[in-house]
Amino acid sequence: MLTEVVEEYLEAIYKMSLNGPVIAARLAEWMKVSPPTVADMLKRLSDKGLVKTSRRDGVKLTKKGLETAETMVRRHRLWERFLTDILGLHWDEVHEEACKLEHAISSPQVEEKLADILGHPETCPHGHPIPGTKGARKREKEAKPLSQCSVGDEAIIERVADEDSQLLQYLASLGLLPEARVAVKEIAPFKGPMLVNVCGAQYALGQEVAAKIMVKGK
Amino acid sequence: MLTEVVEEYLEAIYKMSLNGPVIAARLAEWMKVSPPTVADMLKRLSDKGLVKTSRRDGVKLTKKGLETAETMVRRHRLWERFLTDILGLHWDEVHEEACKLEHAISSPQVEEKLADILGHPETCPHGHPIPGTKGARKREKEAKPLSQCSVGDEAIIERVADEDSQLLQYLASLGLLPEARVAVKEIAPFKGPMLVNVCGAQYALGQEVAAKIMVKGK
DNA sequence: GTTTAAAATAAGAGTCGTCTAACTAATTGT
DNA sequence: ACAATTAGTTAGACGACTCTTATTTTAAAC
Is-above-0.90 flag for pTM? Predict the structure, then answer.
């Protein structure tokens, strides 16, 4: 049996590996833990056959590690959907809660029943694909940050790549939710803000914020 | 912040104290742990102001400890209701699962939303009262084991004081569920089985089983 | 090809929750 | 009242996860 902490590390490695090789030092930052702590843990994960580490490629999940990680991500995102769709929490309140709940499912049966009552959703409330549904992997790749769009572009928001409660609240207040259509009207020079149209209204978004909003070309 | 293990101990102490003074040795059996482990833990719980221990009275929860314990029991039983009523699991499958879920709620708000969608149930699927609903304490006291009934008695099943999956499955197969009406037809001598009527059928129940079924006089 | 910055490792320590083995109370039954 | 059972304590240990401080290795920059 794996501990919760082990599951958290696997999940982190999984998510980080979607953006290139996983460096232990980055993992330490992600987990808010010191580098020696990560080194210890990687040793343990390695011993359990969950990861392979090499100087060249960084940290890689093994088949077994990947399976566990995907299960955790799937459960996390299902719980997020439960928290918003069934309990009626806001999308900025669900991440922390789901982080705990994901480790509290003991069997695939319970996970499946949960998916059943939710209608087998394909994404979490922030737009991230739920592993185990078709096209999950594809979805993960196809989007690009709004900050990389040009003036005149129109796009649909695919997902928001941040769990920060404050940011999510702000985005929701502007109607910047998954499935919303945005149009880039203007980009101020020197990495300045972006003027975007959404739901008929126009807002200026900082680069930082725009970088977190993943869109798919209309 | 309290650890999950601490919460488990408080819950155990709470439940055990409903049947008289809590002896550390009994607690060790309940928690499936060695006596020194319990001694260590009681020291820690004491330091945190969650329990008081004395030779005379055994282990007693403080106000703070009692509050935590009741919260955990409440959450446990709410999750059990969720698992049966919403996910459709059987009553013999939910205890283990709820044991994990109960520690994964971070705020009274989430707990309250859960209670909302469940319709503020007063008991768990096994008939145990949910703390925080009126009469919960009263309920806990008023019932007596079926094994203490006499021939001719009629009673309503209040709850089943065991979480053993096998036993629960067996009881369900006989229709021995909370709210069911039972009539004692015969009691074999020398602590022999009890012949009871339920839903028109008649079954012989061993003393052990009958002792786990708590009833209230019709 | 040095220097510098970044990443990794080594050494030593602490907390939490658990164990076994051995010992000392305290109760209880007769 | 004393032997026997039961309860509790002491001592020493271990695994999981974390820390700090210091050092070494590797990679990048000039």
Answer: yes
